[in-house]
Design a protein that fits this description.
The chain has about 280 residues and is α/β, with parallel strands linked by helices. It is built from ten helices and ten strands. The structure holds ligand 7PJ.
Length: about 280
């Protein structure tokens, strides 16, 4: 059986023949992001970071204007649009697919007008108006699981059965999107590493990557780059988590993940090339 993910201007096979894992590079345009934001506030910096990722072989550039690290305060609609929109227009025709990391319906609408290929929503399209904002387009939709919200999610993450609960949440969101008439070929799921999860929850979910893909019957995006789950097993601070992050990305891809969302594009691209050559 062959299945493809409709990704705006692109089409990614995710099951059957011709599957290749895709590297999504993180382009933060927030002044407060914990790993590389702050340096990329200006359009020039964002563009040079994008060029660097393209040189390194990135497939998708994920543009985000709001830091969602634990405890972060929300950003206003006006600030998010001001940060993100010039970057989207500037990177849209450089070659790679473009994604926007947002949960605000008005940002989704503007981003679709700008021509993005994916809407990446950490909130799983739960905001009122989010589904309507994305319905009449051909961009891919990444549905991520999050318990609570970025300000409170790491205070007391709690599950009886984290894999079953994340799977049930994703199923409910998939059904809400399908009920609105959205083509299932546009959908992609994400367990949401670090979003209202302990280290144990995160690894239970990483181990369940292939189970989630089977249960939801959809392609999966894994985002664990530089996250605390990597620090927890390596004992390394955020600026020394590249190798650990690549180990996690490979663990996800080995279980069938289609997209890995990463900071270190060049190194991840090489790791995946070698991994694919060995398949
Ligand atoms: C994720 C994301 C993730 C998706 C962030 C960070 C926090 N989008 N946006 N999945 N994480 N789809 O990069 O550390 O895991 S922001």
């Amino acid at each position: 059986m062959q299945s493809t993910l409709q990704f705006g201007r692109f089409n990614y096979p995710w099951r059957g023949q011709g599957v290749r894992a895709r590297v999504m590079g993180i382009l933060n345009v927030t002044p407060d992001s914990f790993s590389d934001g702050g340096n990329y506030q200006s359009l020039e910096f964002a563009l040079s970071h994008a060029e660097e990722m393209i040189e390194a072989g990135v497939d998708i550039i994920d543009v985000g204007g709001e830091s969602t690290r634990p405890g972060s305060p929300p950003v206003s609609l006006e600030d998010e649009l001001r940060r993100v929109m010039p970057v989207l227009y500037a990177v849209r025709d450089l070659g790679p697919a473009i994604s926007v990391d947002t949960y605000k319906p008005q940002v989704m609408r503007e981003a679709i007008i700008a021509g993005v290929d994916m809407i990446n929503d950490i909130n799983g399209f739960r905001a009122p108006g989010a589904i309507e904002a994305v319905r009449d387009s051909d961009c891919a939709l990444c549905i991520m699981h999050m318990q609570s919200d970025p300000q409170h999610m790491q205070l007391a993450p709690s599950y009886t059965d984290v894999v079953a609960e994340v799977s049930a949440f994703l199923r409910e969101r998939v059904e809400a999107l399908l009920a609105a008439g959205i083509d299932p070929r546009r959908l992609c799921i994400d367990p949401g590493f670090g979003f209202g999860k302990t280290v144990e929850h995160n690894y239970a979910l990483l181990k369940a990557t292939s189970r989630l893909i089977d249960e939801l019957n959809l392609p999966l995006l894994a985002g664990l780059s530089r996250k605390s789950m990597v620090g927890a097993v390596t004992g390394k601070p955020v600026e020394q988590r590249m190798a650990g992050s690549i180990g996690g990305a490979l663990a996800a891809v080995a279980q069938g993940a289609l997209i890995v969302r990463v900071h270190d594009v060049a190194e991840t691209v090489d790791a995946l090339k070698v991994w694919h050559a060995a398949q």
